[in-house]
């Protein structure tokens, strides 16, 4: 997260301060256990994960998390866009339904859910 800067870094740090109650959130137990990336196990459920190419969190969190899941043998359906994709897709691009990419993400998510929602552990 040290690579984040500008308004994104401010928002991230402020949010985690609010969640944990301390500005030094990364030094707390809550900060250390907030992300599931270090706790991935092979019995995690099938996962759909997507991120916009214009969202720094895609490259810092979503892609590494997807890779960790796949390395553990978890079935992953991912939808990431190349760094040079135009238009640049922002954080939560999936909610911008005026983008064709958002509609594609919606359709892929619905396909994923129709395939995986009925699965039993």
How many angstroms does the end-to-end distance come to?
A: 33 Å
Q: Report the count of strand segments.
A: 2
SS field, number of helical segments:
4
Choose one word for the global shape.
Answer: globular
Strand content: 5-15%
Q: Give the overall pLDDT as a whole number.
A: 91
The tally of structural domains comes to: 2
| Order of strands across the main sheet | 1-2
Structural class: mainly alpha
Q: Major sheet: size, sense and barrel closure? A: 2 strands, parallel
Characterize this entry briefly.
By secondary structure, the chain is mostly helical. The chain contains 4 helices and 2 strands, in the order ααβαβα. Helices cover 44% and strands 8% of the residues.
Question: Which labels suit this protein?
Answer:
44% helix; 2 domains; 4 helices; globular; mainly alpha; 121 residues; two-stranded parallel sheet; single chain
Describe this structure in words.
The chain has a two-stranded parallel ribbon. The protein folds into 2 domains: 1-34, no CATH class; 36-116, no CATH class. The termini are far apart. The radius of gyration is 16 Å and the shape is globular. The chain has 4 helices and 2 strands; from the N terminus they run ααβαβα. It has 121 residues and is mainly alpha-helical.
Task: Provide the fold topology.
Layout: H1 6-20, H2 29-33, E1 47-51, H3 56-71, E2 76-80, H4 100-116
Parallel strand pairs: 1-2
């Amino acid at each position: 997260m040290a690579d984040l800067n500008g308004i994104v870094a401010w928002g991230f740090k402020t949010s985690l301060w609010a969640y944990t109650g301390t500005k030094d959130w990364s030094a707390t137990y809550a900060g250390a256990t907030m992300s599931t990336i270090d706790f991935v196990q092979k019995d995690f459920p099938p996962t759909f994960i997507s991120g916009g190419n214009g969202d720094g969190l895609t490259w810092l969190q979503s892609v590494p998390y997807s890779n960790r899941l796949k390395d553990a043998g978890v079935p992953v359906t991912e939808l990431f866009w190349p760094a040079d994709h135009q238009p640049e897709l922002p954080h939560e691009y999936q909610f911008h339904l005026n983008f064709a990419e958002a509609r594609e993400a919606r359709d892929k998510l619905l396909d994923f859910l129709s395939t995986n929602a009925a699965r039993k552990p």
